[in-house]
């Protein structure tokens, strides 16, 4: 990879809370410049209040076709919607979440990756999930979207080999965030900051490929 400018220009989707917010904070606290995307303006404002000039907020709904104008060295595709649900349940969780969990990432990658490839520099990080490995019935709809995202990631990874652009798929296990509101919590969970620390380390140490992180990992 060619030299990446410092401070890094970092885009984080779904940065108002949870893992995305922790990623935004990790990069901002290290002095990088973060563009934080989400729909909820007041949560983004509190991130900005905590991180100051290192964060710029972009209030946007990623299920709409967002046209980005900035140049980014690091892109963290994190935003996703989780709800328990099977494919044949009354509530169509797969249909509800597909646009955000899959299509929005496809659109952003098509916008952002060609410029990185032309610059022969940059790092794309995708937040996947261990749900693509561990099938459980109440996770079917969500896991189907994450499997589609994993397939897209594997395609981007292949297409960017030798381009100078790094690609990493971070696959966390259960992580304590608002995704779990109203649900029974598993006995062991990751903290959002642990996932963010891995994302940050992947960028600073150039870790690529699929990396699984579980709470019970030694
Ligand atoms: N938590 C877990 O156990 C776990 C485990 C494995 C993988 N993951 C993955 O980790 C990532 C983050 O999960 P999380 O648990 O941190 O989620 P979360 O706490 O529910 O946060 C989701 C983020 O996405 C944003 N978002 C939701 N809909 C959006 C939309 N239409 N447009 C723009 N932004 C939107 C939310 O902000 P607004 O509502 O303000 O828009 C929020 O910032 C996801 O990819 C998830 O699949 C989570």
UniProtKB/TrEMBL annotation:
Entry keyword set: Oxidoreductase
Top-rank EC class of the record's enzyme: oxidoreductase
Record-linked CDD domains: SDR_c
Enzyme Commission identifier(s): 1.-.-.-
Keyword flag Transmembrane: no
Gene3D superfamilies noted in UniProt: NAD(P)-binding Rossmann-like Domain
Highest taxon of source: Bacteria
InterPro entries: NAD(P)-bd_dom_sf, SDR_fam
GO molecular function: oxidoreductase activity
Similarity field: Belongs to the short-chain dehydrogenases/reductases (SDR) family.
Protein name: Oxidoreductase
Organism: Neolewinella maritima
Upper lineage: Bacteria, Pseudomonadati, Bacteroidota, Saprospiria, Saprospirales
């Amino acid at each position: 990879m060619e030299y990446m400018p410092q401070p890094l220009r970092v885009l984080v989707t779904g940065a108002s809370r949870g893992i995305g917010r922790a990623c935004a904070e990790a990069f901002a606290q290290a002095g990088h410049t973060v563009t934080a995307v989400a729909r909820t303006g007041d949560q983004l404002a509190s991130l900005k209040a905590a991180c100051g000039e290192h964060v710029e907020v972009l209030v946007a709904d990623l299920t709409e076709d967002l046209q980005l104008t900035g140049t980014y060295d690091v892109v963290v595709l994190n935003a996703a919607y989780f709800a328990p649900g099977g494919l044949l349940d009354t509530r169509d969780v797969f249909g509800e979440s597909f646009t955000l969990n899959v299509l929005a990432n496809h659109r952003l990658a098509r916008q952002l990756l060609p410029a990185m490839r032309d610059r022969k520099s940059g790092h794309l990080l995708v937040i996947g999930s261990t749900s693509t490995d561990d099938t459980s019935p109440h996770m079917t709809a969500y896991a189907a979207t994450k499997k589609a995202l994993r397939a897209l990631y594997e395609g981007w990874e292949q297409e960017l080999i030798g381009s100078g652009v790094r690609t990493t798929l971070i696959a966390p296990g259960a992580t304590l965030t608002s995704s779990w509101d109203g649900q029974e919590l598993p006995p062991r969970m990751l903290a959002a900051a642990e996932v963010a620390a891995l994302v940050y380390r992947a960028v600073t140490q150039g870790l690529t490929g699929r990396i699984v992180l579980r709470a019970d990992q030694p």
